[in-house]
């Protein structure tokens, strides 16, 4: 995949080019493509240009081969059902490849099972690759997708080229990234780009049985990153996080490493703006693990008057401190939303529903008899008795049997961000937008108050490092348990996590950097009857309002053992019936246990790579919670 033996165009052999002009591509791209064609031996080649016509061709093909079925109720919307074995990211088969192991993963203590990335040596992975990729596209089309992560031509953006044998990936990448033949002009002088190779791993003809017309190869699924040479290879899965390589693989893992080398940040964060009734606008970046409501927060409909929320992105933020002004400027490197469908409705997230009423792909959801999408959470908006076809193919009448499930819990909608009713008019601003506050959060049923402000930058980095959350359906984990997910980046970090934390800490060393305040939020605390103590959704604006007032240094916070908390009465609770004391309580036994567990976990996972500054923060917190 990597080492260059020079290949010229005639080495394409007799593989025909179905669409596009190979001769017009930059020569270093040609060389790489020729190598990959030799490796994968496809039937023909399609060089994507991002045109509408191309979208129509891919859609038609997918409908004809039974992978997509049109949702008649909307314009240009489709349901896609996958093989039920291919529905989520597979962290256990996702690897970082570097010569030095500890460039990829930390020096975990013996016996601590490292969950902050999996490493394999170049030699070891070569065997796995040689066992999979040669001939993997036999009988299939080799699509070449040129794309920009971030606004085209922005100095904050990066270019990738994905090769895939899946038209579903072509169609989804057109939604999630900026696909265009314009890209080639940015590579004319041999400029770097991220090389992505993806195959569903089912060469034709096949004797394998194909379920739902969704070719995949779960036994051999493999997602491999080469951070040094900025390459990704993915085999056997068509599911978003494993196949839309611009997203987690590039925009987080590879870009994270580039960001480390270049002094910026690639984070698992939404970007939103809140404008108050005085017309003052603030931009916020917020990190939550997968399926914890980033999309809902990014598109929040304020439950109280006087605020306007606008969305810039819902999953990934690339952020850089401006050398001159010191501002932290953020872009959304994506162009679409790949959101969790179940739970999304006109109450929880009307803007998401309105975004996906056209030009969208729905994966593993149910369908109503009149050709609409359906998933758990839409009960109240769908007449009882409506006939539903579940993603499993089973038909049932809504309301008759409550045990029936229409959708996979990780079912997704994939829709263009520009269609979002509250998309910010500057969401594509090449200069990025200035971040005033950074929020971390997770699902914490117990012990953790609604909002905590970090004492300072270092303490904020500590809050992020000890982030935990109840597991969700976005990955292959089963059952609900509280898992550590530092910075909401556990599955997405592209290099040694200790270095990653140190990278965050180091931003304080540049005096010109205007460090945003850091916060921790928890919408998910429950009472003794397991009922949520906070209404969440649109009412989260109340917390954002408090956060913004803190960003403006308003005197509304007071110190506690775990950070600064809102002074009683400073958070606008008008019209709400919440038990503030329960919501904000710091149970001593919980926090004493929590900090011990945090130290044990971080020390086990990171060993001597755990930055000293974080050990000091842990020690301080230990002393503070002992006083509770
Ligand atoms: O990995 S995906 O991008 O498919 C979804 C997620 O885990 O956030
Ligand atoms: Mn995500």
TrEMBL record:
GO BP annotations, alphabetical order: cellular response to glucose stimulus; gluconeogenesis; glycerol biosynthetic process from pyruvate; oxaloacetate metabolic process; propionate catabolic process; response to lipid; response to starvation
Domain Phosphoenolpyruvate carboxykinase C-terminal P-loop as annotated: residue spans: 264-624
Keywords for the protein's UniProt record, in alphabetical order: Decarboxylase, GTP-binding, Lyase, Manganese, Metal-binding, Nucleotide-binding
HAMAP family per UniProt: PEPCK_GTP
Major enzyme class: lyase
Organism listed in the record: Rotaria sordida
Domain Phosphoenolpyruvate carboxykinase GTP-utilising N-terminal: 32-259
Homology family: Belongs to the phosphoenolpyruvate carboxykinase [GTP] family.
Cellular component terms per the entry's GO annotation: cytosol
Entry EC number(s): 4.1.1.32
Tagged with keyword Manganese: yes
SUPFAM superfamilies, alphabetized: PEP carboxykinase N-terminal domain, PEP carboxykinase-like
InterPro entries per UniProt: PEP_carboxykin_GTP_CS (IPR018091), PEP_carboxykinase_C (IPR013035), PEP_carboxykinase_GTP (IPR008209), PEP_carboxykinase_GTP_C (IPR035077), PEP_carboxykinase_GTP_N (IPR035078), PEP_carboxykinase_N (IPR008210)
PANTHER family in the record: PHOSPHOENOLPYRUVATE CARBOXYKINASE, PHOSPHOENOLPYRUVATE CARBOXYKINASE [GTP]-RELATED
Keyword Cell membrane in annotation: no
The protein's name: phosphoenolpyruvate carboxykinase (GTP)
GO MF, one example: GTP binding
Cofactor: Mn(2+)
Record text on subunit structure and interactions: Monomer.
